[in-house]
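To the structural biology subgroup,

Please find below the input and predicted structure for asparagine synthase (glutamine-hydrolyzing), which we are adding to the shared reference set this quarter. The sequence is reproduced verbatim from the submission form. If anyone notices a discrepancy with their own records, reply to this email rather than editing the shared folder directly, so we keep one authoritative version.
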Amino acid sequence: MCGVAGVLAGSRAEPAGLDELKRMIAMLGHRGPDGYGFYRDDRIGLAHARLSIVGLAGGFQPIHNEDRTLWISFNGEIFNHVELRRELEARGHRFYTQTDTEVIVHAFEEYGPATWAKLNGQFAICLWDTTRRELWLVRDRLGILPLFYARRGDHLVFASEAKSLFGGGRVDPAFDPARLAQVFTHWSTAPHGSVFAGVESVPAATAIRVDSTLALHVDRYWQPDFATDPSLAKLSLDEAADRLEEKLLDAIRLRLRADVPVGVYISGGLDSSVIAALARKLDTTHMHSFGVRFTDAGFDETPQQRLVAGHVGTEHHDILCSPEDIQAALPDVIRHGEMPLVRTAPAPLFLLSRLVRESGIRVVLSGEGADEWLAGYDIFKEDKVRRFWARQPDSKARPKLLGRVHPFAAVNGQKDSPLWQAFFKRGMMETEETFYAHRTRWRNTAWSQRLLSADVQATANDAAFEAHVAAHLPDGWSRWSPLARSQWAEIATFMTPYLLSAQGDRVAMANSIEVRYPFLDPAVDDLCAALPDRVKMLGLRDKLALRRLAARHLPAEIFQRPKRPYRAPMTTALFGDGAPDYVRDLLSPDALARYGLTDAAAVSALADKAHRQNGRMAGEREEMALVGTLTLQMLARYVHDELPQSIRDQRAALDNAEIHVLEDLAGNARTAAPQPTAA
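Predicted structure (tokenized):
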């Protein structure tokens, strides 16, 4: 994967200068440390930072078609590029590189916008059609890779990360207070936005065509269908496992395609363990695996990780993550993630991707997506219990089923308490509400908004987040089962905007590591959506088809193990006697007043409480509120105080990099000779 950036000028505007493009792409050097490429004509400037994975020689972008009428700057991987290339060559197309990138321009030449649905991959595409004078900004089906844009006057700027937009100088890094407030309820902004004013995100499964007037034409080229396929309705559990294994093997086989070694993450849980086992079935050569350990036993899964690694036969590497490690990593995580966090969980994953890089590996497989597509999260169990309880709201027995949910939380009898039951009973009768399964979580997290300033709170509009998601629900959503509806809500509101960003792309690409997700393969997802609910969740037993598959390849200690959410220490790592200096600094009255985003009195009171209790808070919502406030202050400091120097430093570093420049400023499809060392 790589970094992309560019500027499209209106028909009467000046095109972007080369130095502006260099400032933009320099901010993405972590995404592509292997060299930089540029294309300019009288309307557009495209820039690219390259991370070499496929087609190591001759793969510098932007890349063009035969007659140089199509130009692309591309971030990602097209896993079915071999098959598409073969098909396109049979139709007369001729290639000049071995890259998957070139396949896209030839496919677009052949199929037009129908191309996007043909791509099996994870991608952010910036494609310039010189004939029609149109720009395409396209994102993969599930939004694995980021792509942002902003309109400024008679120019449209776009890039993999917002900091690149700021680096060019056309976009000011101002916060959008309403979207900041969204993070303190939903963990992220709505899928089409960012926390910065005027900076938008291309939604998942969306192609935006920008015409010659800079008007945006938005097309959603794919949507899921969770209606059970009649041909699958009577599948036995073993047959469902057979189908799932077949699709996963195909997905992993495609994702093992690379001109560099591919490793695998092993968390100790079911999902990554299945991927590791099937990957070893396909690739019997030497394979590296990676895992995070914790000094806090409450978060550690070392025995399970080592059991899986030994069982499948990988050379395993791990990091032992302490509170001090989380403290050291968190500022970098926020700088790369460009969003406040209400959890510290991305920090250990940032450290893990650094270990991958130091081990000489550039690509790893990961197990994300299984919980969403195969119903592994406790939120689906909550939904089921609450719906069951709602049919007899006065029952004393039904709410006791909540004691079987969240096995790693609220122990020592708390799950039998009236308080626990009252927490889940609120809104219980509103079973037709669009976000029924998620309302409890969002209401709990929204408590954090009380730490925001009055001005920010005044803009808070959680309904806008929900209205956007509701307006883009797939056709037929209302006819799906309650489980299917909550699964898609989880994918659209949590997996895409938070999980695949904060815990996926951003922390991995910070260290130039590409993560690939077999469970997010189109064929795997289409199968999972079409499977009957009973092979995903039966009663409160989860991921049945996947567990049956895992029983064929893994020890019982793994395939029978209850779901354990990935978590990391929060306030216990950041507050109290071992708190880093930056915590008191960023949460001091002066710093809180400087940025004006928080309620200084409320923050100080809660932070003082956390310090007195050595970080041990009464509940998770207080922890999330403090982490959210601290990381918001980190982001504000980076944007307002550190970003200008970072832009200068990164631009200077580009002067010593390998650079390729192609120009056609007269609009004559001419190109300048490559300049491999030009500044």
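Summary notes: The radius of gyration is 25 Å. Residues 620-654 form the longest helix (35 residues).

Regards,
Lab coordination
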